[in-house]
């Protein structure tokens, strides 16, 4: 039978499995030994199924099969345990997305972000109070209305609260990134990716509470789950 990677089967017991398994490249998944296509495939090969690929140590692994599939231009199985660098990258990316999801709820675009920054600058140079003389008085009041605040003073309090919370948000993201890059284990021990992610989510919840207390209605992003780390 001619080797055709897109329509092939491999049979074996990869490391970590308690019994033999069969992978179908056509389905991109494990299949049962009773699968009709698999049985026809084996019959066409005289009753012999192709052996599961092995790595450089001679061990049958999902990663070894992934290497075969990728070399043939096919998708990986998705069954191999992620490597530490992959998990680090996933944790850092997920944290960045969670931070962005919070920021977007406050300033949905660059124009809003610039306006918010300018409002904070005005307040910081005016002892934290909304301006009382034009042209800034009217401009600030219009900005407050644009952000849905009931008054300039209410908006001023919100802007100052958001300003402080933004520092805490960046601190949480920075701490997560540093911990993730230093992690040597995926789970369990202090300093692991799982611990770093849990600490980040606690900090994220605190920032959301801080923002809500300042008058910015914020929904905390959904819990982060990453295969190999906390799922």
Q: Note the main sheet.
A: 3 strands, antiparallel
Range of strand content: under 5%
Radius of gyration: 27 Å
Spans of at least 5 consecutive residues whose pLDDT stays below 50 are: none
Helix share bin:
40-55%
Shape: elongated
Number of strands: 3
User: What's the arrangement of strands in the largest beta sheet?
Assistant: 1-2-3
Give the topology, please:
Elements: E1 9-12, E2 21-24, E3 29-31, H1 36-44, H2 62-71, H3 84-106, H4 110-124, H5 136-146, H6 152-182, H7 193-213
Antiparallel strand pairs: 1-2, 2-3
What does this protein look like?
There is one protein chain. The chain is mainly alpha-helical. It has 2 domains: 8-72, no CATH class; 84-213, no CATH class. Helix content is 52%, strand content 5%. It has 7 helices and 3 strands; from the N terminus they run βββααααααα. The chain has a 3-stranded antiparallel β-sheet, with no helix packed on it. The longest helix has 31 residues, at 152-182. It starts with 8 loop residues before the first strand and ends in an 18-residue tail after the last helix. The model has no long low-confidence stretch (mean pLDDT 93).
Keywords, please?
single chain; 231 residues; mainly alpha; three-stranded antiparallel β-sheet
Short description:
By secondary structure, the protein is mostly helical. It folds into 2 domains: 8-72, no CATH class; 84-213, no CATH class. It has helices spanning 36-44, 62-71, 84-106, 110-124, 136-146, 152-182, 193-213; strands at residues 9-12, 21-24, 29-31.
């Amino acid at each position: 039978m001619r080797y055709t990677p897109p329509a092939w089967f491999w049979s074996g017991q990869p490391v970590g499995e308690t019994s033999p398994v069969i992978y179908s490249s056509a389905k991109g998944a494990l299949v049962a030994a009773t699968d009709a296509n698999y049985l026809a495939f084996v019959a066409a090969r005289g009753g012999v199924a192709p052996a599961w690929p092995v790595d450089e140590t001679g061990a049958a692994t999902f990663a070894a099969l992934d290497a075969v599939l990728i070399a043939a231009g096919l998708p990986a199985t998705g069954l191999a345990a992620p490597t530490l660098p992959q998990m680090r990258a996933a944790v850092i990316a997920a944290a960045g997305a969670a931070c962005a999801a919070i920021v977007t709820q406050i300033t949905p675009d660059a124009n809003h972000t610039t306006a918010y920054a300018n409002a904070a600058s005005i307040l910081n140079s005016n002892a934290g109070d909304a301006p009382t003389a034009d042209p800034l008085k009217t401009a600030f009041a219009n900005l407050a209305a644009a952000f849905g605040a009931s008054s300039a003073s209410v908006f001023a309090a919100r802007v100052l609260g958001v300003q402080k919370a933004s520092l805490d948000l960046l601190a949480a993201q920075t701490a997560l990134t540093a911990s993730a890059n230093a992690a040597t284990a995926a789970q369990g021990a202090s300093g692991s990716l799982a611990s770093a992610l849990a600490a980040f989510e606690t900090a994220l919840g605190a920032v959301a509470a801080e923002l809500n207390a300042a008058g910015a209605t914020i929904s905390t992003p959904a819990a982060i789950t990453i295969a190999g780390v906390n799922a």
